[in-house]
Amino acid sequence: MTWGNQNTEKEAHEQLSYAFDNGINILDTAEVYPVPIKNETQGNTDRIINPWLKTRARDKVIIATKVAGFSDRETSLRDKGKGTRVDASNIKESVEKNLKRLGTDYIDLLQIHWPDRYVPLFGEYMYNPAKWRDSIPFAEQLQALSDVIKEGKVRYLGVSNETSFGVMKFVHIAKTFGLPKIVSIQNSYSLLVRCPFEVNLVEVCDPRNCNIGLLAYSPLAGGVLSGKYLNMDSQEAKRGRLGLFPGYMDRYLKSLASEAVSKYVDLAHRHGLTPSQHKALSSPEWRKRCWCNPRGHKSWGGAAVRHDREEGWSASTLPSDVLRVKSQLAVQRCGFNTQRGGR
């Protein structure tokens, strides 16, 4: 997400090599990257990945990318200079351009970056019926995605920033019409953003139901859980995304979020951990409770510097008392209790 904006090509290649040399086998990109989205930088992340990808055996790298959802503002993505939709022409053009930028002839996982229909997105948590709009039918979207699979340009399908309603619609239509089933959902999940998934999508994605793997993005909440933004006047904060781009991901800087981050950082330090090592997704205990197929579960980190990535990957099992306190903090923030009792 930062390559081509905050990072040089050399830094990006060092980060990729370090990741894949230490057991990572999948990279996630998107046609709109890097973010924040700008016409002059759009697609740069893919262009930076391209030469690095040539140094690796293609079958050893799983490439996940995304086609943009509905937008009447992102007019630079398509040749006709119009906004984006999840229809056949947009999907085909997106796939062709993705393949060219990346320098490959197939995409392992193609995801719809955000829905074509209205849903609350990127800091908007309540559904507003007044914002409902006409959208591309689910069956039409899935048929268009099926076509690029038949052409050999895409292997698997996924969704992102999706809801239970959307997941169920895609799964039902795939089963009804014999179309490819989505295999993954990439949604925000972190110590600051647990409720939307744990309260809602957990049942849908359970292996005994739809069996949809979670690709958790922003496990450090845009870097906020590292603790570096607790003092926005510090040099570290000013160099970070939230400091460089005022207003970007500012939902993670609200008063309640800052209060929770401060407590998580203190908890990590008391146990000799960095906040990055302390993140929820590094815990095997968390994975035991996970609703996803363990073989399909991943988490995406967008750390701009290699040091942050190394810390996250070096994390191991968390002490039981740390997990207990983290659960208590989650209850305070989400307003629900994970234990039995009460109504």
From TrEMBL:
PANTHER family: NAD(P)-LINKED OXIDOREDUCTASE SUPERFAMILY PROTEIN, NADH-SPECIFIC METHYLGLYOXAL REDUCTASE-RELATED
Stated name of the protein: NADP-dependent oxidoreductase domain-containing protein
Stretches assigned to the NADP-dependent oxidoreductase domain: 2-277
Statement: the UniProt record of this protein carries the keyword Magnesium: no
Pfam families: Aldo_ket_red (PF00248)
Molecular function per GO: oxidoreductase activity
Keyword Protein biosynthesis: no
Keywords, comma-separated and alphabetical: Oxidoreductase
CDD domains in the record: AKR_Tas-like
SUPFAM superfamilies given in the database record: NAD(P)-linked oxidoreductase (SSF51430)
